[in-house]
UniProtKB/TrEMBL annotation:
EC numbers: 5.3.1.9
Gene3D superfamilies xref list: 1.10.1390.10, Glucose-6-phosphate isomerase like protein, domain 1
Alphabetical list of NCBIfam families matching this protein: PRK00179.1
Highest taxon listed in the record's lineage: Bacteria
Name this protein carries in UniProt: Glucose-6-phosphate isomerase
Keyword Isomerase in record: yes
Subcellular location: Cytoplasm
Family that this chain belongs to: Belongs to the GPI family.
Keywords: Cytoplasm, Gluconeogenesis, Glycolysis, Isomerase
Species per Swiss-Prot/TrEMBL record: Chelativorans salis
Length: 544
């Protein structure tokens, strides 16, 4: 057996031997448990003491990370090796926020190109913000519409909302869905004279984005004439030839590179709408936050390293404890798009079924990731987290301070709720406690006994909590980079390639085949009975 298989077997044995691990007993037995199983870097703290891990668990997990070659893979990523082997690409999103050393790729420093695009973006963004760059009729832009999907949408949309207190540029809108409702509802609100479109697509072939961009171009041409269109469009892409073919002037095109994965691209020119919203200085602070996390990830020893610990605990929950999902609950309304962003980051990266060598994986890989902001989630699905039959580890994200000092009472309530939920998941409530509580309320014995089982919380359910001072651009950059690296750590332990996404291709191919069928240009007889039955039903409804 290899060291990897050996340590995995040891981890599984360890889990079996500790099946009855009880968080309540662990806290009672060890007054130091919080300080032992939490780690801080500057103002950011990761508390994983409410997870069923101990020193032996962590020793085995770090041994396992050594056996999986985590440190070597991390170095390979930072130093520009082509670790995305199935696409033969380097993975260098960290270079986009690097401010010091050269970053070499095939013997060439990529930093001059990175800096050049950043300066061009800044000049463009600041000109839009200042009203120096205007629409065709000379009016300043009041609204910017980003047309993109997946990585060309979720990151900027999430960050724009997260940084609302810093948003002093034009209004931002995001159109992603090919559903015409999305662009129609957006355009309804807009004045073409004061609207700027950014077409964001790494490949510039994505059908949703190209369809929406075409519709936007037609809308603009119909309103202001075709000569006006150029002044109202900019683009972000790695495929500069395709952007030129679409007709966007090269002075308004911001490039990036194939070594930036779509879901890791908000630090690149894909971040242009963020920059237009909050200004280039705030965007630089956002990059600086990510860079601080990169340094921490690269340098801190495993037991003090936040992304490593988050990854080890995530791996423990998924691959050893076999929990199917993780819930990410930001106690921050402005992070309400974070779960959607993390779904792409985590599930598109680690939803894989073969190892780097192409062999079937022997362990469960990426979990289902989902969530909603607290406190809203509490009034919706927390029931299942507390009393459902699956154990779903929860990740709480919390700022100590809000941006609204006048509403401190709101923030106090928010913090109290976040802490209460992790405590409730851990402590639970026994049958005796539930019965006693009902008796104390004056309920008769028979009634209390009948109702009490419904009011039992099993407790001993794992959660971890990430706390920082305030959600400013630096903190947001650091938080996103923390999650990027956690996904990297888990992928290294799963021994999969986190940087390709072949799993999205089949559906695209079939959609291309099915379009003429839907349009009625081809019949559906070659499809399976379900698909052709659905096509017939849809056609009947369309005719009726
Ligand atoms: O930026 P684009 O090339 O338009 O790609 C947009 C998105 O679509 C693809 O299908 C991928 O699954 C995503 O990783 C990508 O972010």
């Amino acid at each position: 057996m290899s060291a990897y298989e050996d340590t995995l077997a040891a981890l599984r044995r360890h889990r079996e031997e500790n099946r009855d691990f009880d968080l309540r007993a662990a806290f009672a037995a060890d007054p130091e448990r919080f300080s032992r199983y939490s780690v801080a870097s500057d103002d950011m703290l990761l508390d994983y003491s409410k997870c069923a891990v101990g020193d032996e668990t962590l020793r085995l997990l770090t041994d396992f990370a050594d056996a999986a070659g985590l440190a070597e893979r991390r170095e390979a990523m930072f130093s520009g090796e082509r670790i995305n082997t199935t696409e033969d690409r380097a993975v260098l999103h960290t270079a986009l926020r690097n401010s010091s050393t050269p970053v070499m790729l095939d013997g060439q420093d990529v930093m001059p190109d990175v800096e050049a695009v950043l300066s061009a973006m800044s000049a463009f963004a600041e000109a839009v913000r200042a009203g120096d760059l205007t629409g065709a009729t000379g009016k300043r832009f009041t609204d910017v519409v980003n047309i993109g999907i997946g990585g060309s949408d979720l990151g900027p949309a999430m960050a724009t909302l997260a940084l609302a207190p810093y948003h002093d540029g034009p209004r931002l809108h995001y159109v992603s869905n090919v559903d015409g409702a999305h662009i129609a509802d957006t355009l309804k609100e807009l004045d073409p004279e004061t609207t700027l479109f950014i077409v964001a697509s790494k490949t510039f072939t994505t059908v949703e984005t190209m369809t929406n961009a075409g519709t936007a171009r037609t809308w603009m041409a119909e309103k202001l004439g075709s000569g006006a269109v150029g002044a109202h469009f900019a683009a972000v892409s790695t495929a500069l030839d395709k952007v030129a073919a679409f007709g966007i002037d090269e002075t308004r095109v911001f490039g990036f590179w194939d070594w930036v994965g779509g879901r890791y691209s908000l630090w690149s020119a894909i971040g242009l709408p963020i920059m237009i919203a909050v200004g280039s200085e705030n965007f630089r602070r956002f990059l600086a936050g990510a860079e601080a996390m990169d340094r921490h990830f690269r340098e801190a020893p495993a037991r003090e390293n936040m992304p490593v610990l988050l990854g080890l605990v995530g791996f423990w929950h998924r691959a050893v404890c076999a929990y199917p999902a993780r819930a990410v609950i930001p106690y921050d309304q402005r992070l309400s798009r974070l779960p959607a962003y993390l779904q792409q980051l985590d599930m598109e990266s680690n939803g894989k079924r073969v190892t780097l060598d192409g062999d079937p994986v022997a362990i469960p890989t990426g979990p289902l990731v989902w969530g909603e902001p607290g406190t809203n989630g509490q009034h919706a699905f927390f029931q299942l987290l507390h009393q459902g039959t699956d154990v779903i580890p929860v990740e709480f994200i919390l700022a100590a301070n809000g941006h609204e000092p006048a509403l401190k009472h709101h923030h106090d309530l928010l913090v109290a709720n976040c802490l209460a939920q992790s405590e409730a998941l851990m402590k639970g409530r026994t049958l005796e406690e539930a019965t006693a509580q009902l008796r104390a309320k004056g309920m008769g014995e028979a009634e209390a006994r009948a109702l009490a089982p419904h009011r039992v919380f099993p407790g001993n359910r794992p959660s971890l909590t990430i706390v920082y001072d305030k959600l400013d651009p630096f903190a947001l950059g650091r938080l996103i980079a923390l999650y990027e690296h956690r996904v990297f750590v888990e992928a290294a332990l799963f021994r999969i390639n986190a940087f390709d996404q072949w799993g999205v291709e089949l559906g695209k191919e079939l959609a291309t085949e099915l379009l003429p069928v839907v349009e009625g240009k081809k019949d559906a007889s070659a499809r399976d009975a379900s698909t052709s039955g659905l096509v017939a039903h849809i056609r009947a409804l369309r005719q009726g």
